[in-house]
């Protein structure tokens, strides 16, 4: 479904991604974890070319892009395979929940408005927000806005949904409602890549884990094996630190 080979990205003299390679299969969930500044968000933004890598090959379904010589057609084809859920929702402030979901259907896919609205309502129902169809983002909680953005991503029928720390902007009590929706998507075998700090969620939902630090993949593997039997000392230290912080928060 998705394969990344030797992806390199720098901002000026700062090397952010230093030869990243991995792949996932259709229906799998990949969680990307690691300390702040490790390159996680840059990586996921490179996958749909919101950031332009200098080197590497990205393959999603039948789309293939060589970052050393990308064409506009290659970029458009790659982007058509993905949908992005951002940290800060990125909803249209002047459009209702339903209009945010149907915008791409009507404008990009030229779906008739009545049909788009029907699809939009089905998707809002999936994320538990059919009653908010006429609400504007300013009247909704952060958790509700993020669920609208997930419905918007689903409307594009992407091959892969990319989540860039989808709960990082939420108050703690709102985190679970968003994670619950993502869990439901995982149960439907929707292919997802999720950058997250939620370790319990990653352990429960992900099929595979990638641990990044300093622009490298330090370790990767099946989720259960990764948390139970990490091989690299850097990984073990990170898991211990995150677990300790989580316990301190509970106390």
TrEMBL record:
It comes from Lysinibacillus macroides. PANTHER family: AMINO ACID IMPORT ATP-BINDING PROTEIN, L-CYSTINE IMPORT ATP-BINDING PROTEIN TCYN. GO terms for molecular function: ABC-type amino acid transporter activity; ATP binding; ATP hydrolysis activity. Residues 2-239 form the ABC transporter domain. It holds the Pfam family ABC_tran. Keywords: ATP-binding, Cell membrane, Membrane, Nucleotide-binding, Transport. InterPro entries: AAA+_ATPase (IPR003593), ABC_ATPase_HisP-typ (IPR030679), ABC_transporter-like_ATP-bd (IPR003439), ABC_transporter-like_CS (IPR017871), MetN_ABC_transporter-like (IPR050086), P-loop_NTPase (IPR027417). The keyword Transit peptide does not apply. This is Amino acid ABC transporter ATP-binding protein. GO terms for cellular component: plasma membrane. It is found in: Cell membrane. It is a peripheral membrane protein. Its main location: membrane.
């Amino acid at each position: 479904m998705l394969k990344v080979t030797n992806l390199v990205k720098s901002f000026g003299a700062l090397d952010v991604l230093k030869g990243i390679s991995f792949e996932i299969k259709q229906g799998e969930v990949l969680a990307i974890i690691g300390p702040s500044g490790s390159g996680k968000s840059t990586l996921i933004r490179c996958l749909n070319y919101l950031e332009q890598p200098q080197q590497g090959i990205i393959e999603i379904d039948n789309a293939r892009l060589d970052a050393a010589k990308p064409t506009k057609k290659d970029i458009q084809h790659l982007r058509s395979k993905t949908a992005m859920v951002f940290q800060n929702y990125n909803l249209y402030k002047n459009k209702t929940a339903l209009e945010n979901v149907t915008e791409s259907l009507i404008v990009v896919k030229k779906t008739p408005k009545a049909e788009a609205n029907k699809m939009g309502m089905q998707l809002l129902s999936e994320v538990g927000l059919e009653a908010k169809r006429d609400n504007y983002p300013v009247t909704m909680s952060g958790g509700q806005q993020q669920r609208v953005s997930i419905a918007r991503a689903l409307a594009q029928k992407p091959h892969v949904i990319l989540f860039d720390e989808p709960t990082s902007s939420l108050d703690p009590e709102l985190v679970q409602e968003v994670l619950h929706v993502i869990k439901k998507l995982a149960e439907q075998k929707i292919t997802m890549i999720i950058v997250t700090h939620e370790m319990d969620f990653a352990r429960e939902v992900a099929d595979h884990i990638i641990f990044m630090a300093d622009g490298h993949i330090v370790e990767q593997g099946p989720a259960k094996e990764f948390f139970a039997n990490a091989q690299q000392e850097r990984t073990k230290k990170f898991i211990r630190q995150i677990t300790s912080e989580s316990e301190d928060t509970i106390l």
